[in-house]
Design a protein that fits this description.
single chain, 776 residues, alpha/beta, six-stranded parallel sheet
Length: 776
């Protein structure tokens, strides 16, 4: 523009596709040399003031007429590094997300609270005339000053005469707000309020307000209205103490295979390593050695785990081994604790960070290594907005810092193993357990034969026999079934009617302990039926098995066994999980029954038996990688057996004994499974031989949703070479009253990507049709 005026390119914090781009603003003279990339600033936007992220500083702009000026800075330091600004652009563009939402996800939510900027004079006794007028005390709140005085402050800041910091106007309350139901008979015409009342009745206990808001879409206004009507009451409780007992774990000398892997990683170059180590091969001990090396050279380490709540061991081992401060980022942290952890990392007070997928945004600027444990887990991908894959971001960060990235797993993703065997990654292998114990022996049970003998229980005779033997030997067992609840569905034996969710058209799952029927898709609940809604018959049958029913049946078969159940119905918090974990570790229970929660993070000396109750459940899930997921689950849970000095055994129950997933898992043969799977994908042009995108349209009108998806499908087919898998009129999913039609696109050119990117604005203001796009 001339005259030395600088221009800032700003992403305004508005989640709207019409304005999902940057806007140029002039930087006022008194803020020049202060504002930098990564600052948040207050800008005029239309008739309002908005916060925005500065993503670049430049000397010129295409928009020279009526260019508006930045009003003020929100932060006194860049809140995001230039690295994260660029990563945010990549995430938004590749995952069709809002730029502002991506940047918001990178910082603690408290940073979006009200701030005060505080200026402190460095030498109070030597103030000149202007500063003497402003500083009656050593510190002043900048926001309360006139623009002229603010200019003086910022000018003095640039000269080194004052320091500037920020502080929250209100310190967050760490107490937990609880909701208590007062009037059980209250009837509301509003659906979500009815569901809230039912939920509180069924839970038969007071519930955290946060849980109610998250699960039932209840707002603060809803709660206040119900309080005023004396339908509910609220009160606060103090959060549980976070004092962790750190178990001392002695350092282990690496064996020959571990040493080879440890020495294979080069610290001075960017390379991706796939560490394929069988369960119990000692991957964690190698991680610790690499992290120790980083500390010795003054570098930091980032260790990602699939779910911090399910891996109490790894953080305990690290804390017992290293005297330096370790930040463990997890969902149990309060907003204040998360902010304080982030600030310590930001201020370079921390060299080791452990956490789940969002920890990839930890502001470590001296990274030496990134390690991803259990790299096959889908939980590293966030599927709600802003969508991102933590492992893909880890690759970018590793490249930016010119450091190694290690992907550790016993069951590599097919895509990763393909890259490792085709020289894109370096393959490191641990084929033996670190204690030289063999992998557990697997026995296959054909449940079709069990039915022929009249056994209609979910347990084979072989499994029951082995469970009894374990109890006699005072050894522990794990039973895996990836389905919670009591029965899969409830059916009328008179007319065949199945009780379905009225909003999703899928069967409701029966939960006996609360005597409710629940939709595992949208959360809808109702009390259990005593008679058929269609014909009035009382001949109600409960069909199928969930973990709750398995627990009840097993307790009747083995009345002396101490059994615990671990699934999302029994585990509501990290504390719950750690309680069960400790109980099992202390041998206060003989058998754990659980869903995929128990396939990782469990390492107990006395577990010698694992039972996979229905190995077929994951095989026919409607996804191209269902076989991969099924193999990983079976192999991972099998690996919980025989990890110490006692040999382990695994009993796999199936109705499909000849499926290559089952036969490969029985023999712990990943290579056989991989070869079969990669050949199938090559023939069908599935990943890694293509990039798949799922595009969904949802509407309350079934025909409208179908017509829209067909129009999009036809557009892509006519203009690009990409393969499009289109639905027919019956290929829909129903959720929360919405009809959802999806197409899957196998990308082969950039034209398809451009078409997809241009779709969002067309649907932005459409109230009847909602568009969703995700990479799969």
């Amino acid at each position: 523009i001339g005259g030395g005026i600088l221009i800032s390119e700003v992403i305004v914090d508005i989640k709207n596709k019409q304005v999902n781009r940057s806007f140029d603003y002039k930087i006022p003279a008194h803020l020049s040399n202060i504002i930098d990339v990564g600052f948040r600033v207050l800008v005029p936007f239309g008739s309002t003031k908005r916060v925005g992220y500065v993503i670049s500083i430049k000397n010129d702009t295409l928009y020279k007429k009526n260019l508006k000026e930045i009003i003020d800075i929100v932060d006194v330091k860049p809140i995001l590094s230039k690295e994260f600004i660029e990563i945010g652009k990549t995430i938004a563009e590749e995952n069709f997300s809002f730029y502002a939402k991506v940047y918001d996800a990178m910082i603690p939510s408290i940073l979006k609270s009200k701030y005060q900027k505080v200026a402190t004079i460095i030498d109070f006794n030597n103030r000149d005339g202007e500063l003497k007028e402003i500083f009656k005390r050593k510190s002043v709140i900048i926001d309360n000053l006139s623009i002229d005085k603010q200019r003086i402050i910022y000018s003095s800041f640039k000269k080194g005469l004052v320091s500037i910091d920020t502080k929250l106007k209100r310190i967050p309350d760490d107490r937990i707000l609880m909701v208590h139901l007062v009037d059980q008979l209250y009837e509301s015409r509003i659906k979500r309020i009815r569901e809230l009342i039912e939920y509180l009745i069924e839970c038969d206990s007071d519930i955290e307000a946060k849980v109610i808001k998250d699960e039932l879409n209840i707002t603060e206004a809803d709660l206040n209205d119900l309080i005023s009507k004396k339908i509910i009451s609220t009160y606060y409780i103090e959060p549980e103490s976070k004092n962790e007992s750190v178990e001392v774990v002695n350092e282990i000398t690496l064996n020959t295979d571990q040493k080879k892997v440890y020495n294979s990683v080069s610290y001075n170059e960017n390379k991706i390593y796939l560490l394929h180590g069988i369960t119990g091969s000692g991957k964690t001990e190698i991680y610790i050695k690499w992290i120790s090396d980083m500390l010795n050279i003054g570098k930091s380490s980032l260790l990602l785990v699939p779910e911090i709540s399910l891996t109490p061991q790894i953080s305990s081992v690290l804390k017992s081994r290293f005297k330096t401060k370790i930040e463990v980022l997890h969902s149990r942290l309060t907003n204040k604790e998360r902010y304080e952890a982030w600030k310590r990392i930001y201020n370079n007070e921390v060299k080791i960070v452990v956490g789940a997928r969002s920890a990839i945004f930890a502001p470590l600027d001296d990274l030496g290594i990134i390690i991803v444990d259990e790299a096959h887990e889908n939980s590293y991908r966030q599927t709600n907005n802003p969508k991102y894959d933590a492992i893909e971001i880890a690759k970018i960060r590793a490249k930016n810092h010119n450091i190694p990235l290690v992907l550790g797993t016993a069951t590599p993703k097919i895509i990763d193993y393909y890259k490792a065997t085709n020289s894109e990654y370096e393959l490191l292998e641990l084929k033996k357990r670190s204690n030289n114990m063999p992998l557990p022996k697997c026995e296959l049970v054909d449940m079709r034969e069990e039915l022929k003998t009249g056994n209609r229980l979910p347990f084979s005779r072989t499994l029951i026999s082995n469970l009894k033997k374990n109890l006699e030997n005072n050894e522990q067992s794990i039973l895996f079934l990836n389905r919670r609840g009591y029965s899969t569905f409830v059916m009328c034996r008179n007319c065949g009617e199945v009780v379905k969710c009225p909003h999703c058209d899928i069967s409701l799952t029966y939960h006996k302990y609360k005597n409710i029927l629940k939709c595992h898709q949208c959360g809808y609940m109702r009390m259990n039926v005593e008679s058929c809604d269609a014909c009035g018959s009382d001949k109600i049958k409960f069909v199928g098995n969930g973990t709750e029913k398995i627990y009840e049946n097993l307790q009747s078969i083995l009345p002396d066994a101490k059994i615990i159940r671990v699934d999302t119905d029994t585990i509501k918090s990290t504390t719950d999980y750690e309680s069960y974990y400790t109980k099992f570790k202390n041998h206060e229970a003989d058998i754990i029954i659980g869903t995929q929660m128990i396939t990782k993070g469990l390492d107990f000396d006395d577990v010698t038996l694992v039972g996979v109750l229905n190995a077929d459940l994951a095989l026919y899930y409607p996804s191209y990688d269902s076989y991969e997921v099924a193999f990983n689950l079976i192999e991972q849970v099998s690996g919980r057996a025989g990890r110490s000095k006692k040999p382990g055994r695994v009993i796999i129950q199936t109705y499909d004994p000849n499926n290559y997933v089952i036969t490969s898992a029985i023999n712990h043969n990943y290579d056989d499974f991989y070869n079969m799977e990669i050949n199938k994908r090559r023939l069908q042009n599935l990943p890694p031989f293509s990039i798949m995108i799922k595009l969904s349209i949802k509407s309350l009108d079934k025909i409208q949703a179908f017509n829209e998806i067909n129009m999009i499908s036809s557009s892509i087919k006519s203009r690009s070479k990409s393969k499009v898998f289109s639905p027919n009129i019956n290929d829909f999913k129903r959720k929360n009253d919405y009809f959802i039609y999806s197409i899957v696109i196998s990308l082969v050119d950039d034209i398809s990507v451009d078409i997809i990117k241009n779709l969002y604005p067309k649907y932005q203001l459409n109230q009847d049709v909602i568009l969703d796009i995700e990479r799969i």
